[in-house]
Amino acid sequence: MAEFDTYAAAEEAVNKLSEKDFPVERATICGAGLRLVEHVLGRSTYPGAAVRGAAAGAWIGLVFGVFLALFTTSAVWWVATVGWAVLWGVVAGVVFGLVWRALPGERREFLSASELLADHYEVLVEPQFAEHARTLLNDLPTAPTSRSQ
Q1: Which of 11, 57, 119, 140 could form a disulfide with 89 if both were Cys (CB 3.0 to 4.6 A apart)?
Q2: Whole-structure pTM value
Q3: In what order do the strands lie in the sheet with 2-4?
Q4: What's the distance, CA 87 to chain centroid?
Q5: Phi-psi category of residue 43: left, alpha or beta, with phi > 0 → left and psi -120 to 50 → alpha
């Protein structure tokens, strides 16, 4: 129905349709021209694996400790239970992180974060609603790109 250069523009179009009482449950925002972009963050090292493991273990220990602390009878025991759980979570996380890093096999020597990007975004509606949606979107400040379906 209509194409937009950014997701925000496509989202704005659907918001406008919603404001005009268009049945937005009949609309879809579809990313087209998808590509996977992987940002290299740095080298994968043993100290880094230990730090990441410690952080993950601390969170797991905190959750586990708070759960166990619910069954304590005093504030001192509550703090002690949470503290010990976090400490053991950190220790287990460091060990797990180092063991995982040391495992043989095909592993990458770098850390990365992946991102899925689209060249453009299409707002699609069911055929019986297409003409009505086009009419409502005609005066949108960020008008759809030239290719309409």
Answers
A1: 57
A2: 0.58
A3: 2-4, 120-125, 27-32
A4: 29
A5: beta
Check pLDDT > 60 for residue 11: yes
Cα dihedral sign, 119-125-126-132: negative
Q: What is the pLDDT of residues 62-78, one digit of tens each?
A: 999 999 999 998 999 99
Residue among 135, 123, 147, 127 at smallest CA distance from 21: 135
Mean pLDDT over 115-133 rounds to: 91
- Name the residue among 22, 12, 4 with its Cα closest to residue 130: 22
Residue 21 in tokens: 């009482």
Residue spans of beta strands (DSSP E) within 33-128: 35-43, 110-117, 120-125
The rounded distance, in Å, linking the Cα atoms of 70 and 78 is: 7
Reported as a single tens digit per residue, the pLDDT across 14-43 is: 999 999 889 999 999 999 999 999 999 998
